Structure to design on (313 residues):
């Protein structure tokens, strides 16, 4: 580790400390007010929940479908071109399809977040919320399956049934070495990012427990995610190191 | 790693396109394109497969050169 890296780390840690201290002090003095604000926001979300699901559909799912259609159009157009132009158009198509998958993934997660925030035992809207949630889940899964099927239709090497639990295993196994390299590289980088993010969320949940009395459950849950990441990383590390 | 190749020339000699070469080598057309553009360095297995397809030596297709900037 050189001097520059140590300085950078020290600076980042000090900055984190300052931000943490400012947020803690701020929250400490505003706790009572915030309690009401959170409860009001919660009630508001529950009351408008039947409208939030269609809003999510329009703002996230429709753009994902639009990007899929644009990606599909470019992919089909690319087949008629020469190799150099094909490369450019295929890359463009890949970008649209990747964006569609990403937005669809966020849409699915926000759908779960909304369910968690709005569902309440004994509420009049219990079944409406559940039905809207299920509808959003079905169309989101449908779009994901459609994108995979499109890729498989255009490239018959790509295997795996998107409705099966074995899909990811079969999918990766059918890729060639360059494609697998990309998948593993992006997988490693996203793992590193999510590990750092999990540690950040553990700190946030501890801070919220201290200042907003959110209880120990958020800390336990975030720590469980971190634990799962550390254990699985070491298990796979051990498995591949001994192969 | 600076690995230069004559894949495009070899392909032209055989009269096949990237997709056809990909099928013969068991990889995608995009991978062949990436190798041709020097963006991806293939494994030794794929290199040997390519030499078999073109019926030539590794040196005829791939050439390693030290990068002066490195």
């Amino acid at each position: 580790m050189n001097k520059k890296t140590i300085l950078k780390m020290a600076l980042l840690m000090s900055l984190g400390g300052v931000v943490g201290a400012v947020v803690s002090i701020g929250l400490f003095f505003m706790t009572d007010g915030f309690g009401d604000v959170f409860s009001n926001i919660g009630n508001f979300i529950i009351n408008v929940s039947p409208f939030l699901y269609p809003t999510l559909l329009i703002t996230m799912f429709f753009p994902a479908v639009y990007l899929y259609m644009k990606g599909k159009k470019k992919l089909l157009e690319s087949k008629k071109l020469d190799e150099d132009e094909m490369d450019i158009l295929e890359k463009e198509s890949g970008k649209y399809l990747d964006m569609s998958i990403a937005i669809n993934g966020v849409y699915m997660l926000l759908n779960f977040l909304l369910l968690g925030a709005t569902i309440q035992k004994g509420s009049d809207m219990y079944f409406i919320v559940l039905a809207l949630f299920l509808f959003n889940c079905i169309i989101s899964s449908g779009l994901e399956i459609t994108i995979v099927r499109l890729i498989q239709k255009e490239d018959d090497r790509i295997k795996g049934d998107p409705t099966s639990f074995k899909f990811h295993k079969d999918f990766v196994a059918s890729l060639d070495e360059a494609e697998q390299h990309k998948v593993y590289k992006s997988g490693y980088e996203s793992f590193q990012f999510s590990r750092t993010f999990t540690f950040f969320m553990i700190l946030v949940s501890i801070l919220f427990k201290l200042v907003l009395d959110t209880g120990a459950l958020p800390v336990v849950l975030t720590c469980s995610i971190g634990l799962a990441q550390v254990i699985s990383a070491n298990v796979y590390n051990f498995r591949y190191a001994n192969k | 790693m600076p690995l230069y190749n004559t894949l495009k020339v070899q392909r032209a000699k055989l009269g096949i396109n990237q997709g056809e070469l990909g099928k013969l080598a068991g990889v995608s057309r995009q991978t062949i394109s990436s190798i041709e553009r020097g963006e991806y360095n293939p494994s030794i297995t794929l290199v040997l497969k390519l030499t078999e397809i073109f019926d030539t030596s590794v040196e005829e297709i791939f050439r390693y050169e030290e990068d002066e900037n490195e």
Summary: The longest helix of chain A spans residues 3-78.
